[in-house]
TrEMBL record:
UniProt-listed Pfam families: DAO (PF01266), FAD_binding_2 (PF00890)
Highest taxon above the source species: Bacteria
GO BP annotation list: glycerol-3-phosphate catabolic process; polyol catabolic process
Boundaries of every FAD dependent oxidoreductase domain copy: 5-343
Record-linked SUPFAM superfamilies: FAD/NAD(P)-binding domain
GO molecular function: flavin adenine dinucleotide binding; FMN binding; glycerol-3-phosphate dehydrogenase (quinone) activity
Organism of provenance: uncultured delta proteobacterium
PANTHER family in the cross-refs: ANAEROBIC GLYCEROL-3-PHOSPHATE DEHYDROGENASE SUBUNIT A, GLYCEROL-3-PHOSPHATE DEHYDROGENASE
GO CC annotation, single: plasma membrane
Signal peptide (from-to): none
Protein's name according to its UniProt entry: sn-glycerol-3-phosphate dehydrogenase (Anaerobic), large subunit, FAD/NAD(P)-binding (Modular protein)
Length: 981
């Protein structure tokens, strides 16, 4: 290890700023951080580069510091700063007497203030409150804390500075009252080592007191928790402050495509008390309404919190404590060589570093002056490199890559030039390319997807990692990055980290997003499953012919609006209900707003994989007795489930999509492989997912298609080999070239649906046959993504097995679900055959109730409302994802009849702190309570309307994702309701 004179503790803006300053003065220095860089307060604030206007009245010295540092950082840190300018806005209720005092104070501090006419301000920022009474412009800006911290490190490295992350100082060593070094403990291995040095600088912010105590010294730091909200929509292009004395919820800062809003000020005893609470979120929304009246209409992405390090020897807390910084030389307390810097603001980090290093340099006998205000933190790329980058990245992507990667841009550009596939987007929300991801992931400081996120913004956009997390995990496996960690553990850790910020605002659109995420990762891919234990082999799968012979009824004649049944919703339960009723000769109308969730799920029928916390290893029909009385299976009964399975088998066989009964009431569910490298329990499948093939084959090759997103053969193979079903079996992985694009490189990612549609054509089949013949593997079974055509049936699968002379199994994949599409097409063919009518893209808004019965449903059309009358109504509007159940803070309501649904009284109790876990989220069972005829229950558990039947995910009492029961409940209740009309 190189000689070190100074050890800097703390990897935030101040610590990395100190490292940069030390290195530029030629002082050998090492920075150590117990976690990742920018994992503390420097990434947990609103990202405001203060002009000082906020402090001008009460703290003019701090204001003067801010405007000086603001000016400097806008010059030296262009890649980290967005020069948005700022507005200070007085709203009704704000003290007008404060305004002239504030203007005078700003000008006295050298802060430029310009009044903006109200009409002009509203033209520039139309979302501002029209009730605003005064608007002033100041030179506020937005700054990216993550980026600036890393750019400080890049600058320091150019001058010899070094960093160690996930490395904690556990002792500050001294002899005769002088620092001699530190003892470090590796956070990954637990190993300890001693690093000799002449000086230690404690720049740990809210943790300064804890670190100082390692040397037996007390530092009075009062952590102050501030909660902030990130919105999906950039509803302001300028920083907006409320023109009043500093308070809560009065700063809005635009960053890229989002806005960050905050903050609160709550004293806390712990520097790591960074969990945001729902009560904080609701309080902030209320405080923000005077500036932006429609704030509740904007989608929130997440909440987060950080702790301000307030130096408070006088025991002042909260907003009463000073925001100024302090540098403490502990020589006065008997220990030479230890400095602590704490307090202050992000905006003044460079000044804090300068003053600290001035003191350190004097003690070390170094006379070199500070130059950090003169030199750009990261120089702009040269013209040649920019031209190369522009050819590879999308226009906006180029700018983002340049600003995020800094000195490492050359590495990503070269990787994309050598392999054009590297330029494809891994994270579409934040435009992170595979090359950029791999460049950062290759750094020795990257130990998790969270570390990569902090440098690239992976998973910080609209979907909050819902889609890119699995792709990123696959990229790690394919490139042998972070090899010491389990891919599945990295994936789960990443989603758990994102969950911490989503949980406090779990209602409305955000809850809808989480329901989708659980549907993908829990219900379809069984990420929450486990590979421990043993699973009994299932019996030989059989073609799933119906047990009871059925003679389809002829299509019913339709006469105008006179329907026997109106079905609302065209998901699995709605289509089954319509098919059942129409098959009985009923006149049926389906009203749908969209295609339902069938093309998101797996296209198989899962009956019951988990009951509570336990795996269902035996007969799932017998396990239904263990379910709560309000569970849909307990309401309709096992026989109704069996009847529904027979009905589906009949329909699918008639429409050319005959299925296999994969499970057995003797041995239980079948377990089938997924693209995530897991196994999931299911009951009936298509022919291309035969569990017998998986059981009998001794060798497998997982085949991926270059450029296909959401499918990594390496990830699938590495995960499957951990499951007992693959014990002692050989698993390989291969790629075949994409059939699309010049020289095999597409202009966009290829989805499973793209390939499946291509496989419907003779050219597509020929391509796949040739490609599979060319792979170097003698494996008996080929595992493929779900790409074997979009049509019901197994023609492509059977032909391909015959052509390749190998067994072929499709793996469950993330959406778009091709297997779900096949089932959807078969059901639609059945409904057309039965004469079912459809009203597309219509939203049912209310019901007409007369004499205790529902007489009609009303839809909202673009031009008018329309009423649909029928004898019976089947409500298959879905749950949280499809908005059949609508949620707001503290309440849940059924969408059409406005039925109240009981919820936990405390918002934070709607969910569990742990994202993964069977049956641990109360929101997962929200839905309508029904009686034995699926009629909704009113007060006293009485049925409200005997001609209204709720089915599928609109029902309460079950967790479709963790139970692996979603398609089974949809099928059983949809069919049962169809027999009642």
């Amino acid at each position: 290890m190189q000689h070190v004179r100074v050890v800097v503790i703390g990897g935030g803006a101040t610590g990395t700023g100190i490292l940069r300053d030390l290195s530029m003065r030629g002082i050998p220095a090492l920075l150590v951080e117990k976690a990742d860089l920018a994992s503390g307060t420097s990434s947990r604030f609103h990202g405001l580069l203060h002009s000082g206007a906020r402090y001008a009245v009460n703290d003019p010295e701090a204001a003067k510091e801010c405007i000086r540092e603001n000016t400097i950082l806008r010059r030296i840190g262009k890649s980290c700063v967005e020069e948005t300018e700022g507005y200070f806005v007085r709203t009704p209720g704000d003290d007008p007497a404060f305004e002239p005092r504030w203007i005078a104070a700003c000008r006295a501090c050298g802060i430029e203030v310009e009044e903006v006419p109200l009409a002009e301000a509203l033209r520039r920022e139309p979302n501002l409150s029209p009730d605003a009474e005064a608007v002033y412009r100041v030179p506020d800006s937005a700054v990216d804390g993550f980026r600036l911290v890393w750019h400080n490190v890049m600058s320091a490295r150019r001058y010899g500075g070094a960093i160690r992350t996930y490395c904690q100082v556990v002792a500050i060593n001294s002899v005769n009252g002088a620092v001699t070094g530190v003892t470090l403990q590796n956070g990954k291995t637990g190993e300890k080592e001693t690093v000799p040095c002449e000086m230690v600088i404690n720049a740990t912010g809210s943790w300064a007191g804890e670190v100082a105590s390692l040397a037996g010294i007390a530092v009075s730091v009062s952590p102050d928790r501030g909660t902030l909200l990130a919105f999906n929509h950039r509803f302001t292009n300028r920083v907006v402050n409320r023109l009043r004395k500093s308070s809560d919820g009065d700063i809005f800062v635009p960053h890229g495509s989002i806005v960050i809003f905050g903050t609160t000020s709550i004293p806390t005893d712990r520097p790591d008390d960074t969990r945001p609470r729902s009560e904080d979120v609701l309080y902030l929304l209320k405080e923000g309404e005077p500036l932006f009246p429609k704030i509740r209409d904007y989608r929130m992405l997440r909440a987060f919190a950080g702790t301000r390090p307030l130096y408070s020897p006088s025991a002042a807390t909260g907003r009463a404590a000073t925001r100024n910084f302090v540098i403490i030389d502990h020589e006065e307390e008997g220990l030479s060589g230890l400095l602590t810097v704490t307090g202050g603001k992000f905006t003044s980090f460079r000044l804090m570093a300068e003053k600290t290093v001035d003191k350190a340099a004097a003690k070390l006998g170094v006379t070199a002056p500070c130059r950090t205000a003169e030199e750009s933190i990261v120089p702009a790329p040269d013209e040649h490199l920019m031209k190369r980058a522009t050819k590879l990245f999308p226009s906006e992507g180029t700018r983002l890559a340049v600003s995020r990667l800094g000195d490492d841009l050359e590495l990503a550009v070269r990787a994309s030039e050598e392999n054009p596939w590297k330029k494809l987007l891994l994270c579409e929300c934040e435009m992170v390319t595979l090359a950029e991801f791999e460049t950062v992931a290759s750094e020795p400081t990257s130990h998790s997807l969270g570390d990569i996120r902090r440098r690239t913004r992976l998973g910080m956009g609209t979907c909050q990692g819902s889609f890119c997390a699995l792709r990123a995990t696959g990229a790690l496996v394919e490139n042998a990055l972070i090899p010491d960690a389990s891919p599945r553990a990295l994936f789960r850790q990443f989603l758990q980290e994102r969950w911490g910020g989503i949980r406090p605002l779990l209602w409305g659109t955000q809850l809808k997003e989480i329901e989708l995420e659980r549907g993908i990762y829990d219900a379809t891919l069984n990420i929450d499953g486990h590979s421990e234990g043993t699973f009994p082999p299932c019996e030989e799968p059989q073609p799933f012919h119906p047990v009871k012979a059925r003679t389809p009824a002829p299509a019913a004649p339709n006469t105008g609006d006179g329907y026997d049944a109106v079905v609302v919703g065209a998901g699995f339960s709605g289509l089954i209900a319509a098919a059942t009723a129409a098959g009985r000769g009923k006149r049926v109308l389906v009203i749908n707003r969209g295609g339902g969730a069938l093309t998101i799920g797996g296209g198989t029928v899962d009956i019951l994989g988990f009951a509570g916390q336990e795996v269902v290893t035996g007969n799932p029909f017998a396990a239904m007795e263990r379910l709560a009385p309000g569970h849909p299976y307990r309401i309709v009964g096992p026989e109704a489930v069996r009847d529904a399975l027979d009905f589906l088998a009949d329909v699918m066989e008639r429409q050319g999509g005959a299925m296999l009964r994969a499970g057995s009431e003797t041995t239980g569910n079948a377990w089938l492989p997924t693209a995530a490298g897991t196994m999931k329990p299911t009951w009936i499948t298509g022919q291309s997912m035969n569990p017998a093939t998986v059981r009998e084959a001794e060798s497998f090759v997982v085949v991926g298609i270059t450029g296909m997103k959401d499918f990594s053969p390496q990830l699938a193979a590495s995960g499957l080999q951990l499951w007992p079903q693959f014990a002692g079996k050989r698993l390989e992985h291969k790629h075949i070239p994409s059939p699309f694009g010049e020289k095999g490189v597409t202009v966009r990612d290829t989805t499973a649906l793209d390939l499946a549609s291509f496989l419907d054509s003779p050219e597509g089949f020929d391509w796949l046959e040739r490609s599979l013949a060319g792979i170097r593997s003698d494996a008996a079974c080929i595992l493929l993504p779900t790409i074997l055509g979009t049509k019901p049936g197994s023609a492509v699968h059977a032909r391909l097995e015959q052509a390749t002379k190998r067994k072929i199994v499709e793996l469950f994949c993330p959406p778009p679900s091709v297997t779900g599409l096949r089932m959807h097409r078969a059901l639609m063919q059945e409904l057309r055959l039965r004469g079912v009518h459809f009203v597309e893209n219509a939203t049912v808004t209310k019901a007409v109730i007369e004499n205790g019965r529902c007489r009609a449903l009303v839809t909202a059309m673009p031009d008018k409302e329309r009423e649909y009358r029928a004898d019976s109504f089947i409500i298959a509007t879905g749950g949280l994802f499809s908005e059949g159940v609508k949620t707001r803070p503290g309440e849940a309501t059924e969408a059409i009849f406005k039925l109240p649904i009981p919820v936990p009284p405390v918002q934070d109790d709607w969910s569990s702190p742990e994202f993964f876990g069977h049956g641990n989220h109360p929101f997962a069972v929200l839905g309508v309570a029904v009686n034995g005829r699926l009629n909704p229950l009113g007060p006293g558990a009485a049925g409200l309307w005997d001609n209204v039947h709720f089915v599928g995910r609109s029902l309460g009492g079950y967790d479709f994702a963790s139970e692996k029961s979603g398609s089974g409940v949809a099928l059983a209740t949809g069919h049962f309701a169809g027999t009642l009309v």
